[in-house]
């Protein structure tokens, strides 16, 4: 599957995933760097008090998951050889594992 595929649904679906994963990376990095959640997100998500005290843990995990999703979509949107695509898949899986480790081991 690539951008040259005749089915526009899958192309649009993958582009939406890329846009959402970019937003996850930016938002998660912002939360982790500023060490606070935006007030609007606290109201919309209705975070309990126990989670409001962990912005670095939640933001860092969210940024790593977004990066994993972004890297995972690259071989489908940009033509590349199989070994490079496989290496990107391995990197995406490592980032997903790192996000799980970040969330479990990080104590704020």
List keywords for this structure.
108 residues, 5 helices, mainly alpha, 79% helix
What does this structure look like?
- The chain has about 110 residues and is mainly alpha-helical.
- It has one domain (about 10-105).
- It has helices spanning about 10-35, 40-45, 50, 55-75, 80-105.
- Helix 1 (about 10-35) runs antiparallel to helix 4 and helix 4 (about 55-75) packs antiparallel against helix 5 (about 80-105).
- It is flat, with a radius of gyration of 16 Å.
- The chain starts with 7 loop residues before the first helix and ends with a helix.
- The mean pLDDT is about 85.
- It comes from Micromonospora pallida.
- This is SdpI/YhfL protein family protein.
What is the compact description of this entry?
The protein is mainly α. It is built from five helices and no strands.
């Amino acid at each position: 599957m690539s951008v040259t595929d005749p089915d526009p649904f899958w192309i649009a679906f993958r582009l939406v995933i890329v846009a959402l994963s970019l937003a996850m990376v930016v938002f998660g990095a912002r939360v982790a760097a500023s060490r606070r959640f935006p007030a609007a997100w606290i109201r919309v998500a209705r975070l309990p008090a126990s989670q409001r005290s962990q912005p670095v843990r939640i933001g860092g995990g969210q940024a790593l998951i977004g990066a994993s999703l972004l890297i995972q979509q690259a071989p489908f949107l940009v033509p590349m050889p199989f070994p490079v695509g496989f290496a990107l898949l391995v990197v995406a899986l490592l980032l997903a594992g790192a996000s799980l480790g970040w969330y479990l081991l990080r104590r704020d």
